[in-house]
């Protein structure tokens, strides 16, 4: 019945499939962005919570593949585990808040945080608090990132800001983001299951989406491995700017 319903609703099925394919390629090529792209578009047809539910499982798979594609799995796992656990805790809080309230204002807040950061970065200023108070800023910022991720399904920009400020290499940045995404999505699934938010339709669409995105994700990862680190950092700054505009436009619309 689920397949018949969505195949008959060709507008939704075609748009969702195209958006997921593009999102998988973008994520594969720059290491983040899968949840960000389809969430606002699918939300046009449904609502923000349903959009997150429909993309949760494919997002989890994409994050796992991206993390593994960088190699040095055990070292990456050990190095970024504290970040992943703190963002997971924050995601649990944010997801519970999402179930109980509207998250549009948080999206606007996130957009302005990104724009402020890009301006500060453009004039060659750095966020000194990360270096002045490394431990306390790490804990607070990681929890805040997780909460925003749970509320908006957008965690990558905040993680990128942190990674850039700490001078992470391309591989370190991608692994830090994706293991945090991975743990965040796992706890989101748990919270949604506890609250009875998942339906058979959500699960069916999510597992079907995994097959839809597989090839484009593979192509994106191949492109990423050929990209120079300096070019990569320029690309993600440009993507951050585009993300902020998308978030602002979505809130206004």
TrEMBL record:
Pfam families: TauE. The keyword Transmembrane applies. It is found in: Cell membrane. This is Probable membrane transporter protein. Keywords: Cell membrane, Membrane, Transmembrane, Transmembrane helix, Transport. The chain crosses the membrane at residues 12-36, 48-68, 80-98, 105-120, 140-164, 176-196, 202-219, 231-252. It is a multi-pass membrane protein. Belongs to the 4-toluene sulfonate uptake permease (TSUP) (TC 2.A.102) family. InterPro entries: TM_pro_TauE-like (IPR002781), TSUP (IPR052017). The keyword S-adenosyl-L-methionine does not apply. Its main location: membrane. Signal peptide: none annotated.
